[in-house]
């Protein structure tokens, strides 16, 4: 508490009851002002100290005992999607239908007027992470926002959502969209929307390794993003000669997707070489070891998730547990009921 000048205590108290009350109230305000100034200065100092510590990335280096090896390597090939858009799909194609709890991963490239106009979803989550340019999201629940390079949008479709995703910048707009399944108990929950700007995503830089912690934890730093299905989503950049060991819970499924560059993934004896646009499915172990032996930076995302172990029935934008639930989803969307009531009159605006 801030010190109080003793002369304040020697002031003579007025004799009138009303004046006396006013006098003591004034003293109270002076004392409170001095105390609060000291307290808030202290809190602000702690916040600044914490922020500096986070930026310096002064965290202990992760260690793993049994590195996961690459058990499957899939090249994401270009295909048309939406209206005039192009995507490179890794998970969700014939070679890799799904990796519980992950349903799909697209690396998209879109230039206006192409995009993804109004369309429905039910039963899972979509995670959009921008690499270049900007995208505008609108949905019938009233959410609207534009995310730029490095920003993130995490949308839980739950019982039903209709939305649009359209480019908001000139030229090519690039990003990643991940679909994550929801457990049967969460498939009919109310829709939810989280948006995180690049400046608010936790980041650690250490020994030639730069990691953006979108979901989960790395180098002792945890993301503020809430994930209903336990998920890890990390964006790594390794400078030439750098290496990283990233722990992954033993029971989780995991894969890496290379955005640019080339690297060695897995243990020192059985590492797999891979280049951009490849998805690498990881086998059992407690983490992933990655090295960059090349002369240019390596950028990849590492994704891990707790398997749900439930039946998956997918038809277009709906992901449920049974065929009957899929038929019901189409009926609900067609007749604007059970979560799709707002779809009757809603249309996105340019």
TrEMBL record:
SUPFAM superfamilies listed in its UniProt record: RmlC-like cupins (SSF51182)
UniProt cross-references to InterPro entries, sorted A to Z: Pirin (IPR012093), Pirin_C_dom (IPR008778), Pirin_N_dom (IPR003829), RmlC-like_jellyroll (IPR014710), RmlC_Cupin_sf (IPR011051)
Cofactor note: Binds 1 Fe cation per subunit.
Domain Pirin N-terminal: 86-180
Keyword Lipoprotein set for record: no
Cofactor (UniProt): Fe cation
Binding annotation for Fe cation: 119, 121, 163, 165
Gene3D superfamilies (alphabetical): Jelly Rolls (2.60.120.10)
The family this protein is said to belong to: Belongs to the pirin family.
Protein name: Pirin-like protein
Organism: Musa balbisiana
Lineage of producing organism: Eukaryota, Viridiplantae, Streptophyta, Embryophyta, Tracheophyta
